[in-house]
Amino acid sequence: MTTVSEPVGQLSGRARAMLRAVAAGRAELSGGREPDLYVDGLPCCDQMVTHDLVHAGLLRARAVVGLGERADAELTEAGKAALS
């Protein structure tokens, strides 16, 4: 599992796949302190990795949304670096 304390170079294959989906424009994040990731409209099964990626500053929502709402997800500069 990816945690905030792990170096970016140690991301799991699942975490990298999630970041690639975000980079491809296929992902949304729900509103709230612990957002959920949706890929192609379906909820991602690994909520903990989603939370870790958001808290590590690798991805974020493009817009501020409330609870029960979704916004397109985007990679931060750190998230782009993690994939390169």
UniProtKB/TrEMBL annotation:
Protein name per the record: Uncharacterized protein
Lineage: Bacteria, Bacillati, Actinomycetota, Actinomycetes, Pseudonocardiales
